[in-house]
């Protein structure tokens, strides 16, 4: 699951999505803590009138799909601390989908890190912000989970390298070094 495959089903501006800008520096990993709900269920819950909290997240992943509720450049309230919320995006992994959801999350987080040109040190747990036991299913093997992301980064990088190996690619930059585009010959 790459980021461009994530279904964008954004909340309207409300207390879960205030529209405050976020320039995220961390990716915070969560488990939903709900043994039965799918990504779709979790997304629907955010719009349920009975749900009056401001708690939200950016992306939820299950074994089939991923849904983005809040754009990655806006704050969502998921980390339990002001610092966590104002510096990180929250990725929720559905308890219900077990290893399949974790695999999707590993691929997605690797893709996000590659896009940012970041390393695994940018990935952290909800617990690291607020002390909450979250992501409760992954915490006992957090090192293994981050190793899987590192392996996935290598895999995605080598695949994109293989794709372009038979072609010539020229990258165009502006004066400040921003990538303007690529020409493939
Ligand atoms: Zn959490």
Provide a concise account of the structure shown.
This protein has 185 residues and is an alpha/beta fold. It is built from five helices and eight strands; from the N terminus they run ββαββαβαβααββ.
**Which strand order does the major sheet show?**
1-4-3-5-2-6
End-to-end separation: 28 Å
Please give the radius of gyration in angstroms.
Answer: 17 Å
The total of helices stands at 5
Low-confidence stretches: none
Tally of discrete structural domains = 1
Just give the CATH class: Alpha Beta
Attached small molecules? zinc ion
Using brief descriptors, characterize the structure shown.
binds zinc ion, alpha/beta, Lysozyme-like, six-stranded mixed sheet, 34% helix, 5 helices, two-stranded antiparallel ribbon, 185 residues, globular, single chain
Task: Give an overview in words.
The chain is an alpha/beta fold and 185 residues long. The mean pLDDT is 94. It has one domain (3-184): 3-Layer(aba) Sandwich (Lysozyme-like), CATH 3.40.80.10. The chain contains five helices and eight strands, in the order ββαββαβαβααββ. The strands form two sheets. The protein has a six-stranded mixed β-sheet. A two-stranded antiparallel sheet has the order 7-8. The protein has helices at residues 39-47, 82-87, 98-116, 126-130, 142-165, and strands spanning 7-8, 26-31, 59-61, 66-68, 88-93, 123-125, 169-173, 179-184. It binds zinc ion. Zinc ion binds at residues 30, 126, 132, 134.
């Amino acid at each position: 699951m790459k980021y461009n495959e994530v279904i964008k089903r954004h909340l309207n501006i409300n207390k879960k999505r205030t529209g405050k800008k976020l320039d995220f520096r961390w990716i915070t990993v969560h488990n939903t803590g709900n043994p039965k709900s799918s990504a779709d269920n979790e997304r629907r819950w955010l719009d349920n009138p009975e749900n009056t909290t401001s708690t939200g997240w950016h992306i939820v992943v299950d074994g089939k799909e991923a849904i983005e509720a809040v754009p990655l450049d806006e704050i969502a309230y998921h980390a339990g601390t002001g610092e966590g919320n104002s510096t990180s995006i929250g990725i929720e992994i559905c308890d219900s989908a077990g290893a399949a959801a974790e695999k999707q999350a590993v691929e997605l987080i690797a893709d996000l890190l590659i896009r940012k040109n970041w390393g695994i040190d940018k990935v952290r747990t909800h617990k690291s912000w607020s002390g909450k036991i979250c992501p409760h299913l992954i915490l006992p093997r957090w090192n293994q989970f981050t190793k899987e992301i590192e392996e996935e980064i290598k895999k995605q990088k080598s695949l994109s390298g293989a794709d372009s190996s038979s072609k010539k690619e020229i990258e165009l930059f502006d004066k400040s070094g921003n990538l303007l585009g690529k020409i493939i010959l």
